[in-house]
Specification:
The complex is a heterodimer of chains A (294) and B (356).
Chain A lengths: L1 H8 L5 H14 L1 H24 L6 H8 L1 H34 L2 H16 L2 H12 L4 H8 L11 H24 L5 H8 L4 H29 L3 H6 L7 H11 L3 H36 L1
Helix pairs in contact in A: 3-14, 4-14, 5-6, 5-9, 5-11, 6-9, 7-9, 9-11, 10-11, 11-14, 13-14
Chain B lengths: L1 H21 L17 E5 L3 H10 L1 H7 L2 E5 L4 H10 L6 E4 L3 H4 L28 E13 H4 L7 H4 L9 E4 L6 H10 L11 H10 L6 E3 L2 H9 L5 E5 H9 L4 E16 L7 H11 L2 H11 L14 H6 L4 H6 L5 H6 L1 H12 L3
Parallel strand pairs in B: 1-2, 1-3, 5-6, 5-7
Antiparallel strand pairs in B: 3-8, 4-7, 4-8
The chains are: A mainly alpha (294), B alpha/beta (356).
Protein name (chain A): ABC transporter permease subunit
Family (chain A): Belongs to the binding-protein-dependent transport system permease family. CysTW subfamily.
Keywords (chain A): Cell membrane, Membrane, Transmembrane, Transmembrane helix, Transport
Chain lengths: 294, 356
């Protein structure tokens, strides 16, 4: 918090830098903007145009999408699974990120490595490892059988998919939360304690609200990435956990219905925007109100 | 006048016939020394051991013709469509799955001029209007020895009979629907696959749905192999190459050869390639007996030249599908039917695979 206010006042900014600021700042973003336009905006525009023109102009592709029960079910399922993955990731990530802020330097290094190492492995490899763990004849069920317990059905069920996706996406939840948490001034907690708050109350009323920006950032990233997941649900899921991206892939790669594939993408994109538009004011409101209280 | 007409006709006949005589009839596997010097061909296939084997099979062609052979892949019909739409086709010869050359014949793939190829040694009924086979393989039913012991399933009808043969099933859910499997499912439901109509596709799919929620739809060949090697499923629908590897790796499963489904990869020339004749030369060389022997020895897929005598080990030989016995047991799907109903079948198949 203090760091940001220093920057915005510009008190310590050297004079020569502020002279260059207006134009320089814009041009610094140029490479990224160029990449975004070429690699995102242009292809996206083509997808949108195609969804209204291929094979014939009109909204046939959208009518087809919403008339098909398969599409509707899978679209709904995609959002439900994404919500679950976000929730489970949050439950795992929050205490982990908190632990990272309170341990010593060396332990923190180990914890950070544990988060980052999975980033260096391909998603396919990690997913296949989950197959070996979760399958009926896999490690977990062999262990349960060894203990004389009845095996549980994990692979090819939605919980199996959620477990696998959570593991892949966990770093995207941990890192934003951690980066916010490490900026929280823990003296605020001490202050609360000195004013008579019990530890859990100080934590819930002071610490948690201050960490919410990280939670929101992590939740949005994980939720949106989940919506586009393809390999993990395909390998860990059964027919009842196929997500929309698999259906898009079918239309685009095997049936060559690029218009329909485009329409599916546009529907997913618009649905995501709508959801974010609903969520954004809620987040902002909470955030500012807690700030006022703090 | 009559004489003139006769003379004219005779001259024309000679004029037309001459180039035909001058042009040698192509022989599979042969190419003229140095005939493609300075030219470049891009060959596209599915990568891995398979494409390596194909390149090895084409090595002699490359050396003799002097062509520069580039490799690309994996084959994606969507990418090819993009090239054809843009009028810039860089893929000269493309290895595809079973049906695309029939579905997109004339639009994405050239109709083949069979006077430029020697197709005499290809097994019967495998040359399409737009394709020649790239290799053969099969889809077999593999059952777990431990589960069925003395009373194993004998055909696909048993595969669909969950009362007499309880146990989990694993099915190829890697891509397009397997027409042959739906035909067998329809047969198990009491229908006659030979008289199948578009409405019957749903009946076949329903029979698959009736196998229950425990049915596994594997997404990759590697996954099917893993299912067998770990003993995860009691009956697995498998590609012969994967079945063979699983058995070599110790999977205690036995193949059922009755009505094994005949499958092939296809070799095609896309519409709009820059040098069609060079592409034909590659295809013709690929079809040769020696090339096909090399292909089988490197990949263990079945050769598509009847004269090929590859040297392979016993397990590999047991899974080759070109012996007279295997040819007699094989089941060939109704290609025209599935080409005609491709979109409908794909739609129903996708519904099945997404749990609907």
């Amino acid at each position: 918090m203090t760091a940001t206010s220093d920057l915005t006042t510009g008190a310590e900014r050297p004079a020569f830098l502020s002279r260059f600021r207006p134009r320089g700042a814009v041009w610094l973003a140029a490479p990224a903007v160029l990449v975004l336009v070429v690699a995102l905006a242009y292809p996206l525009a083509i997808v949108v145009v195609r969804s209204f023109t291929d094979p014939v102009p009109g909204i046939d592709n959208y009518i087809w999408f919403f008339q098909s029960a398969v599409n509707r079910t899978v679209l709904q399922r995609t959002f439900v699974v994404a919500a679950w993955v976000t929730l489970v990731s949050l439950i795992c990530a929050y205490p982990y990120a908190y632990a990272m802020t309170i341990v010593g330097k060396n332990v923190r290094l180990v914890l950070i490595l544990c988060v980052l190492v999975p980033f260096w492995l391909s998603g396919v490899v990690r997913t296949l490892a989950w197959v070996i763990l979760l399958q009926d004849s896999g490690v977990i069920n062999s262990f349960l059988r060894g203990l004389g317990l009845s095996p549980v059905k994990l692979i090819r069920t939605p919980p199996g998919v959620i477990i696998g996706m959570t593991q892949v996406l966990l770093p995207f939840m941990i890192l934003p939360i951690y980066s916010v948490m490490k900026g929280i001034d823990t003296r605020l907690l001490q202050a609360a304690r000195s004013l008579g708050a019990k530890p859990w109350r100080a934590f819930l009323q002071i610490y948690v609200p201050l960490s919410l920006p990280g939670v929101y950032a992590g939740a949005i990233i994980v939720f949106i990435l989940s919506l586009g997941f393809y390999i993990t649900p395909a390998l860990l899921g059964g027919p009842r956990s196929i997500l929309l991206s698999s259906l898009v892939q079918n239309q685009v790669l095997s049936l060559l219905n690029w218009g329909r594939g485009g329409a599916m993408g546009v529907v997913l994109l618009v649905a995501t925007f709508v959801l974010l538009a609903i969520a954004a004011p809620l987040m902002r409101q909470k955030h500012t109100s807690t700030r006022r209280e703090a | 006048m009559k004489n003139f007409a006769r003379a004219f006709a005779l001259t024309m006949t000679c004029a037309l016939a001459l180039p035909a005589f001058a042009q040698e009839k192509p022989v599979a596997g042969e190419v003229k020394e140095g005939s493609l010097k300075g030219k470049t061909l891009t060959f596209v296939s599915y990568g891995g051991i398979y494409q390596d084997g194909q390149v090895a099979a084409l090595q002699d062609f490359v050396t003799k013709s002097g062509v520069t052979l580039l490799n690309d892949g994996p084959t994606e019909i969507a990418k090819l469509k993009a090239q054809v739409d843009a009028g810039n086709v860089t893929w000269d010869v493309v290895d595809t799955a079973d049906l695309p050359p029939y579905v997109h014949c004339g639009t994405l793939f050239q109709k083949l001029d069979l006077s430029k190829l020697d197709v005499s040694k290809i097994p019967p009924n495998q040359v399409g209007e737009c394709s020649v086979p790239a290799m053969n393989y099969g889809v077999v039913l593999m059952y777990k020895n431990e589960t069925y012991k003395d009373n194993p399933p004998k055909n696909w009808v048993d595969f669909f009979d969950t009362e007499k043969f309880p146990g989990s099933r694993a099915i190829d859910g890697s891509g397009d629907p397997t027409g042959g499997l739906i035909e067998q499912a329809f047969k198990a439901a009491g229908g006659d696959p030979k008289a199948m109509t578009a409405d019957d596709i749903e009946k076949g799919i329903q029979k698959l749905r009736d196998l229950g929620p425990d049915t596994i739809y594997w997404k990759t060949g590697a996954e099917s192999q893993q299912l067998a090697e770990s003993g995860e499923a009691d009956m697995v629908m498998m590609w012969t190459g994967r079945a063979m590897t699983a058995v070599k790796n110790g999977a205690q499963y036995t193949p059922v050869w009755q009505d094994w489904l005949v499958v092939m990869d296809q070799m095609t020339i896309p519409v709009g390639v820059k040098d069609t004749d060079a592409a034909y030369a590659l295809l013709n060389a690929y079809l040769g007996a020696r090339s096909q022997e090399i292909l089988t020895e490197k990949t263990s897929y079945t050769p598509i030249n009847l004269d090929a005598k590859p040297k392979v080990d016993d397990v590999t030989a047991a899974f080759l599908t070109s012996t007279p016995e295997r040819i007699a047991q094989g089941y060939q799907q109704n290609i025209p039917f599935w080409v005609k109903n491709f979109d409908l079948a794909a739609e129903k198949w996708n519904a099945l695979l997404s749990g609907n």
